[in-house]
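Let's do one together. I've listed all components of the complex below, 600 residues spread over two lines.
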Amino acid sequence: MSMALAFPQQAARRTRYRLRRVVIEAGSAILGVVLLIWSLLPVYNMFLIALDPEEGEIEFDGNLWPPEPSLQGFRDVVTQQARYLEDFWHQFGNSLFIGLLAMVLTVVIGSLASFAVSRLRLSKGPLLTNIALLTYTIPASFLIVPYYRIMHAYGLSDSLWGVIAAQVAFAFPFAILILHLYASLIPLELDDAARVDGASPLHVYLRIYLPLMVPALAVVSIYALLLAWNDYLYQAVLLTLRNMTVSMTQGQLFADVDAEWNAMMAAAIIYVLPPIALLFALRRYVAASVTMVSARV
Amino acid sequence: MSADQLVATRTPVSVKRPWRPPERGHLRRSDFRWGIAFIVPYAAVLFAFIVYPFGYALWMASKPSLYADLIADPHYLLTVVNTLLFVGLGVNVKMFLALLLSGFFLRRRWWIRALLAVYVLPWLIAAAQACISFHWMLQQEGLVDGLLSALLGIDGPIWFNNRWLGVGANIVAYIWKWMPFWTVIFLAARMTIPRDIYDSAEVDGAIGVRRFVHITFPLLANLYLVCTLLSTLWTLGDFTTVFIVSGGGPGGYSNVLATLGFHYAFDTARPALGVAAVMSALPVLIPIVIVLMRRFHASEVRL
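Okay, and this is what the predicted structure of the assembly comes out as:
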């Protein structure tokens, strides 16, 4: 009190400073709550439907939590009791096959090409990033009609490999850009030193390039897996009942007015888990390389 | 073993010309072969699954009469307007909010870190599944209508019975799904801005909004531009959101080009018209790609 009387100006400044802090803290708390609701509302809706014991129930009855939550929906999915989901694990296996192979092929083929251009110093190197970017001239969904026809010509109609090829081709541009930017952070002298010691390009690729590029490869893996995991259009058009995937079944159930929607949402929640697990496993690498790459652009 | 013997066994190796770093474009033949071998798989996939389908699409859409049909179809013009809205609002609102929110997530508080983990969840949830949840939330008697009547006491509209509500729902769902991805990109970029720049700016009186306008934004401007252009390309090609959230409803009035093309090709069995519909976006796509290429090369020179 006496301090405030002695230095009125300073005290006023201190109050203003304190007020500012309170406003900032209150503001971030409110923003935090808004973001939490924004992010979780659709997820919450998924759980609400999945845990409802009634099959065809998507209405909101005013209860924030289902009065009698039941795991019946999940049980029906896991034991393959629900309609359309009799082969759930087979469908899940197909989705996983597409996702994992698209991921591995994108990483392997993309890193080989990127290595050849940025590390072996092929002439016309910048051409590669340009071609990768040119691919973006045509979004994936715009090519579905020609794909439908071309897959017949390739003998890949109704084949998981056709879908994988499409996903890999459309994952390339971003993969190449990330690999290219990240590779520019690694000094070429490392490669040169190994070459002087007699290592072949393949050796340099395996022993120097790949280990140093792990963070970028982690980002490319996540990206490619999510791209294939998010895809609905290519699977729905190129595949038939013989090779159902989880996404296709979801589309089929969605179109049915009388489906077991709690089981369907339970299947959706199960389907959502693998990418989350992968990101969690690779989070350190992803954080490292996202930081480095975004600083370079 | 004597030193002489050691030297003797090593000579054959040193007779071979030692490896020397090449000038760009003057590779040794064996290196060149390796390079070609490494590129062949990429080139093969690119040719078989991008170049050829693209050429095929151009060939399918090459008849001028198709474009006359498109212009004559009132749905096409509607769809162009919807696409411009979807892309214009979807990209810009999302990118700007992501840029602002990245500043919020930069704060060092344990609960903000925890919130970030929840906040990136939409990006990890598969698109079709998330969109189905959005669709059901907006159904009559769905979660949104229920909350509206419980909290505000108003009856929600029938969302998919109105063109603008349908387009709006698509845009909101799209922003929900993709904003976290860009926020993380901007967050990472902000983390690389050195602390002392802000310290010296603070001495000069740049805090709060002024700090954002004069320091943060200029430093992130190039990244912001590149990301916005990339996002524009991706948003133009987005099919799942519109196909599932509004389903193009009511009666195709909230379609975008990707879903209209699909509708022409698979519902009305006019594949060539469908391809022509999406190909009509090329005049917008090509300049964006050219600007992107220049930007990437500009940043490469700087490296």
